[in-house]
Specification:
alpha+beta; Immunoglobulin-like; 2 domains; five-stranded mixed beta sheet; three-stranded antiparallel beta sheet; 2 helices; 10 strands; 28% helix; elongated
Length: 158
């Protein structure tokens, strides 16, 4: 009696069902591969995190005074890194927010990490208060960035 293809497939299924090694060995091998892969990835990510060239340091601007009144005046703005150290050669930019100034006021931090910016904020009619925004353009020779918002200067009517 000739063997049909159907009989051959049925015999293969029966032999596969009776072979316990294929069912037991495959998941164990996958688990081992997964554990080794996760451990390798962890080591590689640790190595990448230790490379200083890929990390950027956020700077923050701290204006003094933080609350002021309308009229001509100077703001002292300190530029700090996350460790609290002052950053020299950064450009401080003060712009109109809800309080108005003419144009944009800029200054560069000195060796002490502080810049003095001259502003003349004005409030609109019936406007009790407003803000001036402060941004920092970090120095070119560092790995600094200014991506988060900085402290705004509050201008309050007298």
């Amino acid at each position: 009696m000739p063997h049909s293809k159907r009989d051959g497939r049925t015999a293969n299924r029966r032999s596969f069902r009776s072979d316990r090694r294929a069912i037991e060995g495959l998941p164990v091998r996958l688990v081992i591969a997964l554990v080794v892969g996760v451990a390798s990835l962890s080591v590689m990510m640790g190595m990448i995190g230790d490379i200083d060239g890929l990390a950027a340091t956020e700077v923050d601007a701290q204006p003094q005074p933080e609350v002021t009144t309308p009229g001509e005046q100077s703001l002292d703005v300190a530029v700090l890194d996350p460790d609290g150290s002052r950053v020299a050669d950064a450009t401080v930019i003060v712009r109109s927010g809800s309080a108005q100034i003419d144009g944009v006021a800029t200054a560069t931090t000195g060796s002490d990490g502080t810049a003095t910016v001259d502003v003349d904020p004005e409030l609109g009619p019936n406007q009790p208060d407003g803000t001036l925004t402060v941004d920092v353009k970090p120095p070119a020779e560092g790995d600094y960035v200014d991506e988060r918002g900085n402290t705004e200067v509050l201008v309050v009517a007298e």
